[in-house]
Amino acid sequence: MRGAVIHAPGDVRFEERDDPKIIEPTDAVIRTVATCVCGSDLWPYRGIEAVDEPHPMGHEYVGIVEEVGAEVTSVTPGQFVVGSFATSDNTCPNCRAGYQSSCLRREFMTTCQAEYVRIPQAQGTLVATPDRPAGEFVPSLLAVSDVMGTGWYAAVAAEVRPGSTAVVVGDGAVGLCGVIAARELGAERIIAVSRHEPRQKLALEFGATDIVTERGEEGVARVKELTGGIGADSVLECVGTQEAMRQALRSTRPGGNVGFVGVPHDVRIDGEELFFSHVGLRGGPAPVRRFLPNLIDRVLTGRINPGRVFDLTLPLEQVAEGYRAMDERRAIKALLTP
Ligand SMILES: [Zn+2]
After folding, report:
1. What positions does the domain Enoyl reductase (ER) occupy (predicted)?
2. How far away, in angstroms, is 59 Cα from ligand 1 center?
């Protein structure tokens, strides 16, 4: 089969790779229906994360079960399945507590921009849809496997409640999905931080009520202005830079919460400032598996349409163009179909 391999920063190739096989009895192999390029894939692509040797790429997927190991009974060949970027048995103490992305048997998926993918811990990781979904649902189901699940976790971690005010820092796919999540969880006011017009437009369509274009201290001042000088109840930090985290913490009211899901790159938090801010902080790799049944249902009933974050669709063999388009910000997120 063929799949994406990164050889060096800026150098992603679509090439022949070994066919994935069942190795453990808890594995499944799926035939990819759709996969995509993640904002975090751009870290090695841009050379911010080192590429020591060529390796496969991709951690988002939906597909059809091709084969299952002897211990997998929850999904069967032929079913359409959605899974998370982190595998989970869904039975260990961390899974039972709702933190499947800290499963004791966790593996991070890294081979999904390919025609076939091996899924470890398939029993706990994969969720099958009731029927084979119509093609129009595929982008949103793919979004649920990562960006929508992550945006949802950001909103849950920031404790968005009905009637509350939420700020979303970051207008990438996760931030935009965070707007959807804040709306679904009942936030009355949703302030999206974005300086890119097409993204602002999508944020407004997803439920944002206000747009703040300023970053850093000016962005904080603008949020304070919009919230009677106090700050927001909930802030979703969906970037992972020092500036974004500082903006998130300082935009939150005393007693409010920050949910942070942007993978931190050189982010430092000052203990004393955090202490006196009275702000609650929770983040980490999203336990997407916890939210999958709920989010799949919301997609299939037409309540949410996070697939709209994909503004570029390419054949999988043009995966390199997907990286280029996202790197150059010509696309928010590229969907790839074999
Ligand atoms: Zn577990």
Report:
1. 7-336
2. 18
Q: Ligand 1 centroid to 267 CA: how many Å?
A: 28
Which residues keep their CB under 5 angstroms from ion ligand 1? 88-89, 92, 95, 103
Domains and CATH numbers, the chain: 2-132+305-337 (3.90.180.10), 149-283 (3.40.50.720)
Q: What is the pTM of this model?
A: 0.96
Query: What is the tens place of the pLDDT at every residue in 208-252?
Result: 999 999 999 999 999 999 999 999 999 999 999 999 999 999 999
Q: Please name which of 209, 207, 220, 296 lies closest in space to residue 258, comparing C-alpha atoms.
A: 220
pLDDT number for residue 262: 87
Q: Work out the angle at residue 12's Cα, subtended by the Cα atoms of residues 147 and 241, and round it to the nearest 5 degrees.
A: 45
Place of tokens 């849950």: 156
Distance 218 CA to ligand 1 centre (A): 42
- Nearest by Cα to 28 from 115, 91, 120: 120
